[in-house]
Amino acid sequence: MMKSFFSLWLSLLCVGVCTNAYAESTDELKVDWATDGGLTGSTGVLWITFELMKDYIAPDKCVWCQTNEMDETITDSLSWPTPSHAAKTADAVAFGVVPVLAFGALALSGGLENRIQNFGADALILAESLTISSLVNQFVKFGIGRARPFTIREDPNMYKDRADDNLSFYSGHTNLAFVLVVSAGTIAHIRNYDAEPYIWGFGIPVALLVAYARIAAQKHYFTDVLIGAVVGSAIGFAVPWLHRNTSKSRQGGTVLVNQAGYREKHIPMLSFAGQF
Fold it and tell me: Per-residue pLDDT tens for 37-47?
């Protein structure tokens, strides 16, 4: 698991370094590389630090030990005969397929539409969405202390990472998958990329696969992955949306601020010129 976290984080650092030259993007989205980069870096470092310290700060005993009939029924019906295979599938898709899909789709969109200068800002916003969402997830997991499904089943020693036993709520893998997909889709929508329908069309089923695999692995209950999807989607939408450049409307003309501080809207007009 830690190799997956480090690989993802190193990839995000590489994205930030390699795309800094594209900081001056077109004006649908605005980022401040000092502020947004600092926020992304600090939340990312905290995320990785808490993961490294999990053995010391995760609850030794469950705080939320009881389950419910709905969660039990869904977990029993979706659990794989070999849950560890489902866990490996979720790891591969969440930490491999989804990041490649999200970052790759935005890079490809910018390249194909001759707007590759957007990718630096797009990648930073995507990374910022991920690190904020993941850090929030950790605070909740360490505080709630819900027992994972496998700990109350026939083989409580199914997984070796004992510090992970009481971190079921809410699903970090599902949160990660949905925050990346929704953030990429929202960025594509704001940028008006042609690839937006494909990001949603391919991304959401892949994110749902992660959620399903985490239940099949007996790592999470249905409510864990449901809340992971909701929170990840909310943050994945909010972060890009808050980066919109509200000083200009692409459809209604340019909005400027005059010297007196009043907003003036300039509507583009069609004109003809020539000699008669």
Answer: 999 999 999 99
pLDDT digits (tens, 9 = 90+) for 202-219: 999 999 999 999 999 999
pTM over 0.85: no
On whether the CB atoms of residues 23 and 31 are closer than 8 A, the answer is yes
Please give the helix or strand (H or E) that residue 172 lies within, else none. Answer: helix 172-191
What total number of domains does the chain contain? 1
Query: Which tokens belong to 19?
Result: 């795309």
- Domain with 9, as residue range(s), is 2-266
| Token digits of residue 36 | 């947004």
pLDDT digits (tens, 9 = 90+) for 173-184: 999 999 999 999
Q: Are 217 and 83 in contact (CB under 8 A)?
A: yes
CA–CA distances in Å: residue 7 to residues 16, 65, 138, 167, 177:
14, 33, 18, 22, 16
Say which CATH number the domain at 37 has.
Answer: 1.20.144
